[in-house]
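Tokens for Ice-binding protein C-terminal domain-containing protein. Go.
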Amino acid sequence: MSANKGIFRRRALLCALCCAGLAGEAAASPVLYGSLSNFDVYNDTGAETHGFEIELHGVSSADISYTFGGTYNRYGSPVMEDFAGGVFVRYRSSFDAVAGRFLDATPVPTSMSATDGHSCWSGGGAGYLGSGCEHFGLGLNQNATQTYYRWLRGDVSTGLLSAVGSNVQIAAPVWNIVPPADPVAPPVVQAVIAPEPARDRDRFGEAQWVKVFTTEIEREVELEELLSDNNVVPREQSETEIEWRIFQAAPENKKGGGGDELILEQPLAEFGDKKSIIRRYEFYEYLGQYDAEDHEALCAVDCDTPEEWEIGRYIGSQMAAANLAAAAPVPEPSTWLSMMAGLGLIGLIGRRRLS
């Protein structure tokens, strides 16, 4: 009986020491475990197209968790093709070799106004097939370093598809969790979009206008929810994060200047198991003046409050989300020392009992 009591006392002491140590736990930074991007885009190439291509760098097909496709658009699910340093995700029409024609095509739109998601996918109604607008997207387990979008057009003599026109000017955000400088402060979730680099190293790229809406929900968001007319996607005036902002690549000799990357940050307060931050980016043509020497946009008043005549056609919208999980608390170094000291003490007691 006395031996059992000794074992019980040693176990109780170990538990007490460990529990005392755990009181020194520090809250761990949340984990970004997935990013999602769904976007609406008009066919602005001037002729019908037969597919769409997403080029991702810094990831492979193994990093793509799911894609928007199936019965949701005319092209079905995309095909993935890895290359050195990245992956192509291609939506493409079927080809009838006997008839010598592509079976699916995105027509030229009759107008290009903000879609609000109703006409760019099969669930948006009968107007989708003739709208000239499509909705594509995918989920990633890690950030792509670069993303490019292109329309594809088919050659009826070969049945092959190739890129047509310039890259579609809809930026995809890169999400990061930035530890705070002050350990007491919450971490910051950062979303960064960058315009396509300027072709001339001494001149600015083409300018766009961008509007941003944002919201948060206390759960994981699914890719299929990132449609413009879905309730989880922010679009109300009260959810406006940026009313208007000029978006333009700076030349190499002026990197870091105004209008280059758009970086949006928000402190992340404590939350339960899961949380999602959702943003809707809207892109519009810039019709204002440019500097004749370096092609920098010269806004009429300022580049946060455009005149109506400076805003051109709607280009498209990017619905993006970051899914976050609360990480388990991490014991402070002093906690580990307390636990190890407790274990050492128990070992010492045990050895003395045996001696």
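The longest helix spans residues 333-354.
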